[in-house]
Amino acid sequence: MHFIDLNCDLGESYGSYKIGNDKEVLKHISSANIACGYHAGDHNVMMETVYLAKKHNVKIGAHPGFPDIPGFGRREMNLSPKEIYNLVLYQIGALAAITQVQGVKLVHVKPHGALYNMASASRSIAEAIAQAVTDFDSRLILFGLSGSELIQAGKAKGLVTADEVFVDRTYQPNGTLTSRSEQNSMIHDRKFAVNRMIRMVKEGKVTAADGTDIKIKADTICVHGDEPAALDLILALKDAFTKEEILIRKCWSE
Amino acid sequence: MHFIDLNCDLGESYGSYKIGNDKEVLKHISSANIACGYHAGDHNVMMETVYLAKKHNVKIGAHPGFPDIPGFGRREMNLSPKEIYNLVLYQIGALAAITQVQGVKLVHVKPHGALYNMASASRSIAEAIAQAVTDFDSRLILFGLSGSELIQAGKAKGLVTADEVFVDRTYQPNGTLTSRSEQNSMIHDRKFAVNRMIRMVKEGKVTAADGTDIKIKADTICVHGDEPAALDLILALKDAFTKEEILIRKCWSE
Amino acid sequence: MHFIDLNCDLGESYGSYKIGNDKEVLKHISSANIACGYHAGDHNVMMETVYLAKKHNVKIGAHPGFPDIPGFGRREMNLSPKEIYNLVLYQIGALAAITQVQGVKLVHVKPHGALYNMASASRSIAEAIAQAVTDFDSRLILFGLSGSELIQAGKAKGLVTADEVFVDRTYQPNGTLTSRSEQNSMIHDRKFAVNRMIRMVKEGKVTAADGTDIKIKADTICVHGDEPAALDLILALKDAFTKEEILIRKCWSE
Amino acid sequence: MHFIDLNCDLGESYGSYKIGNDKEVLKHISSANIACGYHAGDHNVMMETVYLAKKHNVKIGAHPGFPDIPGFGRREMNLSPKEIYNLVLYQIGALAAITQVQGVKLVHVKPHGALYNMASASRSIAEAIAQAVTDFDSRLILFGLSGSELIQAGKAKGLVTADEVFVDRTYQPNGTLTSRSEQNSMIHDRKFAVNRMIRMVKEGKVTAADGTDIKIKADTICVHGDEPAALDLILALKDAFTKEEILIRKCWSE
Questions:
Q1: Residue numbers in A near C14 (CB within 8 A)
Q2: Of A251, A253, C15, D178, whose Cβ has the fewest other Cβ atoms within 10 Å?
Q3: What is the 3-state secondary structure (H, E, C) of chain D?
Q4: Which residues of B touch C70 (CB under 8 A)?
Q5: Residues of D in contact with A71 (CB under 8 A)
Q6: A16 CB near a chain C CB, below 8 Å?
Q7: CB contact, 8 Å: A14 with chain C?
Q8: Beta-carbon separation of B14 and D70 below 8 A
């Protein structure tokens, strides 16, 4: 039997603006990364999303991002590690208050968008995030790109980490994601994508964009909830995983 | 010996915009109400203000407000009690994370500006705030206008409350503040203001705007930190209080 | 032959948040009220929406609102007439720059949401808006609730005005809309709604909520573009109007 | 007789947050760059600042920046040239409406902060800005770093441009500003700074950071209004310029 966590970014609506398909997606995933009001979400959406995740017994994580609603946290901001520490802490705290009053546990932290990408490559940003998580609650699990600086920074602080892999993105020989500006960065063949996931989970290997096999650690798979096809992809993954005796649930010890 | 708490709104700077005189004011007050990023303040300012308050051994409180930086939280917003519960909780949680990593206690909550005023008069808003405080941490002290709906809602939830009085505002016979639109709402004579405070603390009485004496409970005095004369007023109060054997410190049992 | 303008609020998307069905709606209406970045929309959305409106030969109007993206401009803000003058002017100017570079005319101004409602009832707010429109360009048409303070203020400034009626709302005997908090405020029967519109256009009359007939001036009909059924309603109106020899186009002389 | 324009960023207050010393500075400068609500300023501040500039007969320019109040427009944002075109146009339009109702002319455009810096080095960003200015009103003067990509892009579009120099920054041999991260980037000796300005204006030369003399075109000098010493520096410049028969006024033909 193999185990794999399936995570999705949720609670990304904002005021009158609705995004995603949270209610359906929550039926199938094991971890929800909940936006904390900086790049998406607001206090009302957070309260509702925590309620829904709890109802479906999905693990709840904070999904802190850059303070940039119009850019959805996808625009790089050149902030100091100290400011990144502060903004991650602020957002975790805000969500933690909301999980606390609903009597449910905050389990993990996964940075969002440009912050996630910058933390994958920059050790100082990675350390700022890992330090904020550690200082707030050292039992929180830190999600990051598999093998990235963020994972390493988390481990160095003594955090339990979850190496994250992407269903629909190709990998470079060094284990980084192929940049979206490259032609072959995305995988559009669902069957191919699903089989690749099975191999990652069972063998810890993936074929990189240049055809070579590389090692990759897969603790949790990211699926994107705001894309219309998200639900279909999730169902295809679930179906294939069942046949392969891969169980969707967290695969780390807390 | 009499005791009185002296509180001030602090941490109201925002990004490149600086406001107030926090470093000086913190030397003289006993409680700091720290803005939480909704009407003023941001994650950096909050971190720095908690650090300064801790250094001066000043009690720290959350100062949640309406989400309205350009209006400084002074514009009424017609929000549901549910949304007010959510936004108060969000802001308390964000500040609590910051006090926690600095190893200092969050002691009280005082709503800001238009939220404070609306909570003084509306029981449903008062209850939403009191409920958020109770659910997050029932040991927090709730600050509100002396004798107001907010104080009563806090007591009904079993919270310790602090009745707040204002140095520079006149009172109506029913104990409410004279509206700022009235000519006689403000007190500009410092000596008169200070003596009035001494009477409130020692006798629990104040002369209302119509000349009649009314009862008033004074647990904490609000001084405004963003006004240039704030420091002078604070020093005048301290001086007078020392002569009258009134000690500036919290006057409630936690 | 009768003429009636059909207007719709468009360009309400914001950053990554998409709202409405602008491309389809623009095929059928005669006037587009374009959000100006304060309550919805942004510089990119505005540029795109003006392009689309121009392509479909739909008249373009500015749709200024309160500065409140999370509340979608639907929350009342207690601002001074002077500030309302300023914020309306700012938003008209921003959109006018965008129409200008696309070589298309800015035709009208219609305030949004809470600002529209407040301007219907408050003469000072109505005057602030009418003055901003007049000072910027006195040839602009001012849209407002039929017979409201806004229409009267516009006329007093010498503006051409367009009396607006609503398909799906009931009227009080005094010509105001029945408050949404009342049970009978909305009309859900489409056939009834359409027939009522025909009578408004042809006879200038409507049956109020109490069953009495009242006079009503209908220059332009508002349909809501962000509701899923908007398109169906528009098509039903068009169909009925064609049979009744009512032509959808502006009915004022510029 | 020599002529030089003296410009300052003004109108940078925001809601309750006050910044700068606009009333004093306006007595001494010839061009005001007015913030347009994206990185600083708001509709009220813009209206008031235009009023003050008009009163002191100071030329008015739009000062568009990135949409980032908390970062004061000083944080780089990786936006497409198309989006930069849109946001510059929006801001110019908003300010133009405000100058128009006050019966005063909009004379120039100068991008702010990170947008200014990026436009100095990136031709595509420079072109987007120059195009927005040209499309809105080709008689507007485009301010940019002396000899930069922005100046060149403006000239290529046929705009009148103003080469801007800085009193307190050192230059590299290639004419760019020494990065603020370098030790010798700032000039703290006022007398030295003033004399350097005189030489720039009269001889079109400056000694670069490596000691070599380079050619530099100086049409307008930037002084920073939000620094406490700004007024002193302006007065020192005026005094020295008077002795040297350099007149502070615009030096381009419209």
A1: 17, 70
A2: A253
A3: CEEEEEEEEECCCECCECCCCHHHHCCCCCEEEEECCCCCCCHHHHHHHHHHHHHCCCEEEEECCCCCCCCCCCCCCCCCHHHHHHHHHHHHHHHHHHHHHCCCCEEEECCCHHHHHHHHHCHHHHHHHHHHHHHHCCCCEEEEECCCHHHHHHHHCCCCEEEEEECCECECCCCCECCCCCCCCECCCHHHHHHHHHHHHHHCEEECCCCCEEECCCCEEEECCCCCCHHHHHHHHHHHHHHCCEEECCCCCC
A4: 67
A5: 77
A6: yes
A7: yes
A8: yes
Report if pTM > 0.80: yes
- What 3-state DSSP class applies to B195? helix
Query: Residues 39 to 98 of A: which have CB under 8 A from any D CB?
Result: 67, 70-71, 75-79
Closest chain A residue by Cα to residue C18: A17
Residues of chain A with pLDDT under 50: none
pLDDT in tens, B86-142: 999 999 999 999 999 999 999 999 999 999 999 999 999 999 999 999 999 999 999
Question: How far is the C-alpha of C155 from the C-alpha of A201, rounded, in Å?
Answer: 72
Class for the domain spanning B2-248: alpha beta
Q: Which of residues 142-201 of A touch B (CB under 8 A)?
A: none
How do residues D174-186 score in pLDDT, each as one tens digit? 999 998 888 889 9
Q: Quick one: C184 exposed, middle or buried, by C-beta within 10 A (0-12, 13-18, 19+)?
A: exposed
Contact between chains at B77 and C79 (C-beta distance less than 8 A): no
Hey, is the C-beta of D227 within 8 angstroms of any chain B C-beta?
A: no
**What CA–CA distances, in Å, run from A147 to A120, A195, A218, A220, B251?**
9, 21, 10, 12, 54
CB pairs A-D closer than 8 Å: 14
Residue of D nearest to A78 (CA): D75
As a whole number of angstroms, the longest Cα–Cα distance in chain D is 50
**Do C15 and A69 count as a contact with CB atoms less than 8 A apart?**
yes
Q: For residue range D31-47, list pLDDT tens digits in order.
A: 999 999 999 999 999 99
Query: Residue range B181-185: average pLDDT?
Result: 88
- How far C67 CA lies from chain B's nearest CA (Å)? 9
Closest approach of A91 to chain C, Cα-based (Å): 18
Q: Which of B78, B79, B83, B86 has the highest number of chain C CBs within 10 A, making it the mutation to test binding with C?
A: B78
Q: What percent of chain C has pLDDT over 90?
A: 87
pLDDT in tens, D60-107: 999 999 999 999 999 999 999 999 999 999 999 999 999 999 999 999
- Is C118 a residue whose pLDDT tops 80? yes
Q: What is the pLDDT of residue A246?
A: 94
Q: Quick check: B14 and D19 CB within 8 A? A: no
ipTM of the complex: 0.95
- pLDDT given for residue A230 in this prediction: 81
% helix, strand, coil for chain C, step of 5: 40, 20, 40
Cβ distance B107 to B58 under 8 Å?
A: no
Per-residue burial over A152-163, b = 16 or more CB atoms within 10 Å of its CB, e = otherwise = bbbeebebbbbb
B32-83 residue pLDDT tens? 999 999 999 999 999 999 999 999 999 999 999 999 999 999 999 999 999 9
* Residue D226 confidence (pLDDT): 67
Provide φ and ψ at D28, rounded to 5°.
-125, -15
CA nearest B43 in D: which residue? D70
Confidence of residue D1 (pLDDT cuts 50, 70, 90): confident
D236–B contact, CB cutoff 8 A: no
Q: Does B125 touch chain D (CB under 8 A)?
A: no
Q: Inter-chain contact C70–A15, Cβ cutoff 8 Å? A: yes
